[in-house]
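Protein entry
_____________
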Amino acid sequence: MFGNFFKIALRFLWRNKAYSILNYLCLTFGLTCSIIAALNITRVMDYDRFHVNYNRLYEVEANVTYFNGDRFPKENLSASMPDILKESVPEIESLSRVAGNNHLFINGEESFSERGIYADASFLDIFSYPLSVGVTSNVLTDNNSIVISEKLAMKLFKSTDCLGRSLLLKDESGQKGYTVSGVLKTVASASYLQFDYILPFQEFLAANSLALDKGASACQVWALLAKNADLKVANEKMKNLISNQEATLNQELFMFPLKEKVLYYYIDGRRVWREMKNVVIIGCLGFAILLIACFNFINLTIAQNLKRYREAGIKKVAGAKKSQIIVQYLGESVILTLLSLFTAIYLTSLAVIGLNRVLNGDVQFDFSDFRIILIFAGIASFTAIISGLPPALYLASSNPVNVLKGKTVTSHSFSFFRQGLIIFQFTIPIVIIITVIIIRTQDSYIRNYDLGFDKTRLLIIPGSNDFEAHSESIRTDILSIPGIESVSFSNCIPARGATVSNEVSWEGKDASEKLHFWCINTDFSYDKTVNIKISEGRYFDKSYPSDSSGYLINDVAAKVMGYDHPVGRSLTLDGKKGTIVGVFSDFHALDLAGPFTPTIIRITKEGRTNLLVKFSSGSFSSVNEKIRQVIDKYKPENTIQVMLYSDLMRRTELTTASYFAGLAFLISILLACMGLSGLASFTAASRTKEIGIRKINGATIFSIIRLLGLHFTKWLTFASVIAIPIAFLISNMFLSRFNFRPPMPYWAFLAGPLIAWLVALASVALQCWKASTRNPVEALRYE
């Protein structure tokens, strides 16, 4: 029986090639998008699952109350925190401190920078980073030891068998030799903590004397919660540990699960999407595109199966059961789904490379992973059932008596169902295109926002803390290059972030209040380089010796301090007292998603990790080459990267999201139009005789096109009416995340439906035009 069903299915698909190819293409696109979405979700959910203690690992963080009442998490805590936690929270089984670092590895005449961490000896007991060489219990006990990754071992020694070999590391404090005590095995899954080597944490403490201060932001503190321990109880016990130690530190401790670090972050005690945003967006878009493909299949199949209604009825008369008819016609959708699945798997394998590049991820496409097989099987089964079952039920509902009388199904309820599917198909792309326009508008607003300086004339050289010893000589040599206007060393790239300190006091300040201020460490040329807008007083001037210990504050900081005229008032920052010499305004220390923050500018060499160069003439390439020559004269082993500020703003966090949403719109509108075009073709074929009679009676081609396209216009109108309020709610929620944003582009709510209408009606018009230009004699003879 099944063999006969299979033959009938293949024969029907072969005889109706246009229908088969259209459905095959729709299902292939839908399956490809849904598989890619599923693989990305699997990638993100796999982070750190290789750790044995995956469900018991937490990072201890602190909620800090800022100047405007908002609470934000503070990830780096004092290095003294483990001692306090061990005494007060017995639910914690073990603790380890982790601090990131970058060192320059000296290998003969070569040198290269690598990313690593300082960690306590307990780090490799808490986390399951396996060693291919060495013993976990003692690899970090010696302060001169270092654990390196297999990749770094191959880079340095061309072999992983390097136990006991010596390495020379260099940072801003000088050079030091270390002995390899272990080699980390490469793990298959991605990890939140990214590093290529581990140094003992005591080395970090030796170089950072203030790390043990109670209010310091020195390192991450990772905790292993005891088995069967209550997380809520542990959080309650540690909540006020910092404020109890020092009342002026308004920080509340809590534990952040490792399994959520990639997915979320916390604001004001609420969990907010981080990578989960991309997971949901890509997942929803993939599922929506798959639904569009399935609904296309349903509509096209039902339209095509109008010709097979008699066939199903006669089979019933011959004794076929309803279940047998369902199985037969469902089998056709299974065959098409399988063919589409094989093609989709191939397309996915090609698309994974591009997806990894865009997401900076590592999406795996490994058939040895049973979960990949389950993903394919699950998506294919869902597609086959959703797309094949309604048409099969439609055919199985044939009435033998009506078949023998020559009648067909004319149920309005099923017609409404089909129209509902078409409306849904176009609601999705209309919502997507409106959302894309809103995202692109905000993205363009951020990239083109006037920060007060020419973005195409400002050069950024990160990693400039290595140049501090020769900073004045480097400044002089760069200024001697024709076209260079100013040079400044700073820890703050405008709208990219600065350091935060709560060690700020002023006259009349409540001693119990600890507010956070953003601190810009820089020099006397920063105002010329980034065009600081002075609203009161002046910028620092070398002719005033006291300015070296003075401060500049912005108008937000002045408001927080309660100063109407702050110039000349005293201010203490990190224990250093000075005089406020000026007030500036409209400067973005944070990105445009956040508000203007209370900001302080001071003259200091501490933490100046960026070199900013403003030039007025010459091309980027020529200036870049001359600056590199200057840097090489003082630090020949450094590999520097010179970039334009405008290049930094070329991509924002919204750029990738807008690309994905735009691609989803193109695919979804393409699929919807393919289905609509197929329906238009079947509609025109079913009304061939009517079209011929109308033409004989004088109907024009335009009137026939209008007649055939009327129903499609109605469906598109309903889809637009449904899509616009949905898109408005989504767009409003999206824009509310940004403190600086353009007015709502209401034109998008007209442009989105219009674009969808033009594309959809163009695909329908082609089929209608073919039907309306046919010779009426042939049309009548056709019937």
Observations:
- The chain has 24 helices and 25 strands.
- Confidence is low (pLDDT under 50) at residues 410-414.
